[in-house]
Write a structure and sequence with these properties.
By secondary structure, this protein is an alpha+beta fold. The protein contains 10 helices and 11 strands. It is globular, with a radius of gyration of 25 Å.
Length: 299
């Protein structure tokens, strides 16, 4: 049996029973307890899962190894994400193998639904990826752009946002976003990518939604009422957001710093009369205009 099999067996034991015993795992795989000790140390110091290293400690009360409360939460979050990915692949008719029996078992009870999906050319994806890996510029054929239907750009990063793929590219010093579904063709150029400001790129990627830009962030304030309060209170819209509930519990205030409110506007409209933008003033005005335009359709 390989170490990978033992590692995922231990992970499954921790998720299913909340503990594991070295002697039992050693007997199961017919290896020494010292080997299981090394496996445990591997999970603690070099865990291969996206959830990070697992803080495993010995609990004398149950005579077994357990996870700390924080490590257990991180592992469950990974389990949920891995199970969703497994279920998604299965529903799409793809063969998906998981080393974790718990993940495969959970996936049988999960149904994946995407609210939006756009088809794109596999060759476009392949060429963009090859160009990024080899540090080469590309010539984009983007017919929906009236001003620049064909232009040379520096591909920097692909983003999958809500099942829709986007390309972040450097164009004459500006970081622009392109939808992969609208890219008709890609030609890899001989010229190398010159953009090297990783901090600037990361700052853009950390912004709100897909319509982030490089303008200075401003604080947006939105009040939520009624049924929207518990929903928004449980959500993370932006990593630096601030939530505060009024003393009477009837108003939830959300404050978040963003540079482009295009997506924020559409998201707030989803909540109807249970949401009210408060600041900045130009954002409030734009929201009111949108509401009036929608109301006119029914007059």
């Amino acid at each position: 049996m390989s170490q990978t099999e033992r590692i995922f067996y231990i992970i499954d034991q921790l998720m299913e029973k909340g503990r594991f015993r070295r002697d039992e795992v050693a007997r199961h795989f017919e290896v020494s307890q010292k080997q299981i000790w090394r496996d445990k140390e591997y999970l603690r110091d070099r865990c291969p899962l996206p959830c990070g290293n697992l803080d495993i400690v010995y609990d004398r009360s149950v005579r077994a190894y357990v996870l700390t409360a924080e490590a257990a939460e991180h592992l469950i979050q990974w389990r949920a994400e891995a199970s969703l990915s497994f279920a998604k692949s299965k529903q799409e008719g793809k063969q998906n193998l998981s080393e974790s029996t718990m993940v495969a078992s959970d996936a049988a009870y999960i149904t994946y639904k995407s609210y939006a999906k756009e088809h794109f050319s596999p060759s476009v994806y392949d060429r963009i990826m090859n160009a990024m890996k080899n540090g080469k510029r590309i010539k984009l054929h983007y017919p929906t752009s009236k001003k620049h239907p064909i232009r040379v750009v520096e591909p920097l990063r692909l983003i999958n946002y809500g099942e829709i793929w986007y390309l972040i590219a450097n164009v004459s010093g500006k970081l622009l976003t392109y939808s992969l579904s609208r890219i008709e063709d890609v030609e890899i150029e001989e010229d190398d990518i010159e953009f090297s400001d990783s901090e600037r790129l990361q700052s853009l990627l950390d912004g709100y939604g897909i319509y982030s830009d490089e303008l200075a962030s401003r604080e947006y304030v939105i009040n939520f009422y009624s049924w929207a309060i518990p929903i928004v209170a449980a959500q993370l819209w932006q990593k630096d957001q601030k939530l505060s509930l009024s003393s009477d519990g009837k108003t939830l205030e959300l404050r978040l710093p963003i540079s482009n409110h295009t997506e924020l506007l559409s998201r707030i409209l989803f909540y109807g009369d249970a949401a009210e933008p408060i600041a900045p003033d130009d954002f409030v005005s734009e929201y009111r205009i949108k509401c009036r335009e929608m109301a006119k359709r029914y007059e």
